[in-house]
Specification:
Layout: E1 12-13, H1 19-22, E2 31-38, H2 42-51, E3 58-61, H3 70-73, H4 94-99, H5 109-122, E4 129-130, E5 135-141, E6 146-151, E7 156-164, E8 186-189, E9 204-208, H6 212-224, E10 227-232, E11 238-240, H7 248-266, H8 287-298, H9 303-307, H10 317-334, H11 338-344, E12 357-359, H12 362-365, E13 371-375, E14 381-385, E15 388-391, E16 395-397, E17 400-403, H13 412-415, E18 419-420, H14 427-430, E19 449-451, H15 464-484, E20 489-492, H16 494-509, H17 539-551, E21 557-562
Parallel strand pairs: 1-21, 2-3, 2-7, 3-4, 5-18, 7-19, 8-17, 9-10, 9-17, 10-13, 11-12
Antiparallel strand pairs: 5-6, 6-7, 14-15, 15-16, 20-21
Helix pairs in contact: 2-15, 10-11, 15-17
Bound molecules: ligand NA7.
Length: about 575
């Protein structure tokens, strides 16, 4: 009997019944399942594939009309992954990784969407997914020990387990500017781009936001629009992606060594190989050596690699500043107008504490005659008008407006789903001071509900497909274990949430991450609690912590047998 220890309770309980919650369930259920997976991005697709081996009744729901998640939604011009595709791809099937050919080094959105569709068909996953369906409500019925799943299509399903693969960057953030509804032109959010595309020819276009999405879309729209006005609140660091057609020799090498390379990735902090990683301090080398190392990394086409040039970039402000100044130097070299260059130089946060962007001609775009940069930190946006946008300093006439304003990241896709757990507790209430959970998977009081890439997991700060594969496989083992041993309920406790929360916080504290007003901290959403939501202790360390927990009989989880 492996289930001993203070924290793992194997109880035999008589379920309680909460009549007011039960009143929610009067609608006749349409279907019953063992596992419902929400989301058909790369995490959800793999969950549906892998969980099949459990021999349980499975169902997937997905808002989009097709699979791909992030790569279904973010179809704005220039959308491209910022990790090399030989790395950012599934590793679970050797034939798939051998047979698949990525045309470009960094795949554009359409190639990633094609890949997601291929995987959905190749592995027979598509049939399990109900597309064009948004889960609008998830309620746990304590008496039945089941989740009730409600959708915008009128479905009401009942299931034992729910796996929320709902994405870290899915809930769009459209700032609450006065007057948006009065704007007479068309407006778009980068992550909800129309499938048919948008023609900006001859138009005066405005774009708000200069994060990864803004930095990718700006150079493309600038080539089409009559005029592009970029409204920048925070200048970001970006290095050139130098994207190109995939080098056949590099592809051959990867394919010849894939199993070994994948193993190497698993043992790293970022689930990606960082050739040329340095273990020296910024101050251990001469100025000339440093310049050489940084120039090499600048050409490396790898943001993670750039951040790994010196051991202390993420931890020492002084070291970080030296490397930040190197990038500012590149911006000043590239942008002809010194005032514009200075405005594009990031000065409000240390390098890497907001996502280091990879661009295709971003800084060069500001040398075009039809592009204007407006500082909305100095002069904030006051309102959107019928004919454009007004800042505290000036008014801009616009025919179209692009919001590249990001997401209610990490928690938004969960809190917008109306989730209630034991005792009818609303997840939003539970998370009012920040997202609590254990190992990124489980929230106490919300039994049998698990998250992929949830807050408190490495998620967006490691290679996400490998992260999803690890979490899905780990969860699959947990579910197999629970069903094999007759445990009806898997929960965690507030104590284990606190303990994991402290580890997540300590890992962030050891870096400079908390010095930026980033979405990692919820700082981009007014009123959101300022809590660092990503486990930055390393993918390798995280996997070890999960394996230790399972080896200790799922330490920190409460597995329960119920009567009746
Ligand atoms: P980000 O990185 O959150 O960027 C959003 C941008 O929008 C950023 O420049 C924000 O400025 C700006 N923003 C947001 N609200 C406002 C208001 N009210 N006024 C002016 N500017 C505003 O989202 P992305 O979609 O670019 O990238 C998300 C992730 O996807 C990225 O990190 C990669 O991991 C992939 P701020 O910096 O908040 O001052």
């Amino acid at each position: 009997m492996p289930f001993i220890g203070e924290t793992l309770q194997v109880a035999t309980q008589t379920p309680t019944h909460t009549s007011d919650i039960h009143a929610d369930f009067t609608r006749t259920p349409t279907e019953e399942f063992d596992i419902v997976v929400i989301g058909a991005g790369f995490g959800g697709l793999y969950a549906l594939y892998r969980f099949r081996r459990l021999g349980l009744r499975l169902k997937g729901y997905e808002t989009g009309s097709g699979p791909g998640g992030t790569w279904y939604w973010n179809r704005y011009p220039g959308a491209r992954v910022d990790l090399e595709s030989m790395v950012y791809s599934y590793s679970f099937d050797e034939d798939l990784q051998q047979e698949w050919h990525w045309p470009e080094h960094f795949s554009p959105q359409e190639d990633l969407e094609t890949y997601a569709n291929h995987v959905a068909d190749r592995f027979g996953i598509r049939e399990q997914i109900q597309f064009d369906t948004t889960v609008t409500r998830l309620s746990f019925d304590e008496a039945e020990n089941k989740w009730h799943v409600f959708t915008d299509r009128g479905d009401h399903a009942i299931t034992r387990f729910v796996v929320a693969a709902t994405g870290s960057l899915n809930a769009t953030n459209i700032p609450d500017f006065a007057g948006v509804e009065t704007f007479s032109g068309q407006w778009y959010h980068t992550s909800k781009w129309p499938k048919e595309g948008v023609d900006f020819t001859g138009k005066r276009v405005g774009i708000i936001g200069t994060g990864s999405s803004g930095i990718q879309v700006i150079p493309v729209v600038a080539q089409e629009a009559m005029h592009l006005t970029v409204f920048q609140r925070t200048a970001n660091f970006s290095i050139p992606s130098r994207n190109r057609v995939l080098d056949p020799e590099y592809e051959r090498d990867y394919k010849a060594n894939y199993p070994r390379y994948r193993e190497m990735m698993k043992s790293t902090k970022t689930a990606a190989i960082l050739q040329g990683q340095q273990y020296r301090s910024v101050f251990d080398v001469t100025d000339t050596e440093r310049e050489q190392i940084l120039n090499e990394a600048w050409r490396s086409r790898n943001g993670f690699r750039f951040m790994a040039t010196f051991i202390d970039i993420r931890t020492s402000l002084a070291a970080n500043e030296v490397v930040a100044e190197f990038i500012r130097g590149k911006i000043r070299e590239t942008v002809h107008n010194p005032e514009v260059a200075e405005l594009l130089c990031p000065k409000t946060h240390p390098l890497g504490t907001k996502r280091l962007c990879l661009d295709s001609g971003y800084y060069e775009t500001f040398n075009r005659d039809n592009v204007t940069l407006v500082d909305v930190r100095a002069n904030p946006i006051q309102e959107i008008t019928p004919t454009g946008l007004r800042t505290t300093a000036a008014e801009y006439e616009l025919d179209a407006l692009i919001f590249a304003t990001g997401f209610d990241a990490m928690t938004g896709s969960m809190t917008r789903m109306n989730i209630t757990g034991i005792g009818g507790v609303d997840l939003r209430e539970k998370w009012q001071h920040g997202p609590t959970n254990y190992l990124g998977y489980s929230v106490a009081g919300f039994p049998n509900l698990f998250m992929i890439h949830g807050p408190g997991s490495p998620s967006v700060l490691a290679q996400m497909i490998m992260g999803a594969e690890f979490q899905v496989e780990w969860l699959c083992d947990l579910l197999e274990h629970a069903t094999a041993h007759g445990y009806h309920r898997v929960d965690t406790t507030a104590e284990w949430e606190d303990s994991w929360g402290r580890e997540v916080e300590a890992a962030a504290e050891a870096t400079l991450f908390k010095k930026a007003d980033s979405w990692y901290l919820g700082a981009n959403i007014p009123g959101k609690p300022r809590v660092f939501m990503v486990y930055i202790g390393g993918f390798d360390v995280y996997c070890g912590r999960c394996r230790d927990a399972s080896a200790a009989g799922y330490e920190g989880f409460v597995l329960t047998r119920l009567q009746g």
